[in-house]
Write the structure tokens for this entry.
Amino acid sequence: MSHSVIKGEAGPEGVGRSGWRRRPTAKTIFLAVLLLVLAAYTEIAFGMEATTASGRIGAGFFPRIIGGSAAVLTLIALVQSMRAGSGEDDDTVDLEEDMGEGDLGHHPKAMIITIALTMVFVATLTTLGAIISGVIFMFALLWFLNRTHLVTNIVLSLGLPLAMYLLFQTFLNSGLPEGILPRF
């Protein structure tokens, strides 16, 4: 009888009174190793220049953002994986089982068209410019994938390439291809 009381106080097997797991799971070990790799990546990124002498973004600008963000997110996932109740009996596993397996690799037509449109985008990027090539690419791909929402496709096709151009060309001064449109 005293054995069941002690077991009841300790909680489920492998979980201590504080709510933390006693033994690491494979997920916890993976996240810990990934966190170490991301910390090393971020340290290397901070060793590179963030801007060039001309004021443009340097080689270390985006790696700092990516490495820092990924390290923070991995640390959060690591802490959550070490908490009690975050094992294989998690709600996400039940949701995945309810949803069934994904239909990956069964849409060759969509994949081939996406690759072809991407090749056209890359081929026309320098001649037409970033904005026009982006608009054509976005509209063609959205029209193929989502023909029922024409207005949404037009808004996204115009808005996203323009926003990306403003971000990279105007704010970050990274120098995108002008093409046939004048620089603004």
In short: Confidence is low (pLDDT under 50) at residues 1-11.
